[in-house]
Amino acid sequence: MKLETIKNLQQLLSTPKNVVIIPHKNPDGDAMGSSLGWMHFLNKNNHTASVIVPNPYPKFLKWIPGDETVICFETNEDQALKRLEKAHVICTLDFNSLERIEVLGEYVRNHAATKIMIDHHREPQDYADIQFSEPEIGSTCELVYQIIESLSALEQIDNTIATCIYVGMLTDTGSFRFPSVTPKTHRIVAHLIERGANHAAIYNQIYNTSTMSRLQLLGQALSNLKIVPEYHTAFMTLSQEELKKFDFQKGDTEGFVNYALTIEGIKLAIIMIEDKSEQYVKLSLRSSGSFSVNEMAKKHFHGGGHINAAGGKHNGSIGETVQKLTSLLPQYQQALHTS
Based on the structure, what is the number of domains in the chain? Predict the structure, then answer.
């Protein structure tokens, strides 16, 4: 983290500001945890900060402290735009391309406010005046903690901020099992627990609140699982009809793809989920070892992310998406064999 960047941030925040914080579309635990944690920290330092999400997010994240203050652009555009009009500073968290917030991105691009990027994905766009881009860090929440640390403000982390930051560190590291986890990650987690984060309660809220219909949907996804052993690949599909059959709610498929990666010998796992309203198939890709799903998603599926976790989409049916994937696998045979 560059000292000059921290100094620029300190100078900007030296007087009270109206701040709008925006996570990416379909925000996950890291997006909401980092956004709300940063909001609480700024409000504690005499700023007026609020979070605007592009669209609704899953129920299992609705308990995070500060959730009741979040404004949804998709369902409350007027209120969101009024808040944006008053902003002196706009912080974009857990994404680095304004396309990730779609229509809202144009408002941000054309806004006169000072823009801050806090993110851990590769290849950031050049839209921010102050940019914290750290792809080697396992979560944006961990990056938020490190920024607070660099501001010499760790004593301001209370139970509320600690809880928010812990959420993203837990979810974006696969419960601390991904290669991005470092000794520093665990030291930060220890400090968050010391500051009041209830790690057992947080885990329970995120992972132990499934509905019967979600488990049945998981069963459907697993029954659709296909293995391509010569390419160390497993993939599963979910059609719109299957989603409807099991009363799909936003966030229900979170983590499904990881089940495919638990199969012995599998190095690439993909779930393909049909979205007829958007007329595309959403892909979530996971890998083990050195195989980069970020490169695969970026090159073939209009997406990207991290080396071992990425997302993308394909304009076509489920069948066409499966066909495209299977046609691509031969060119990755050596990489999947050696990763």
Answer: 2
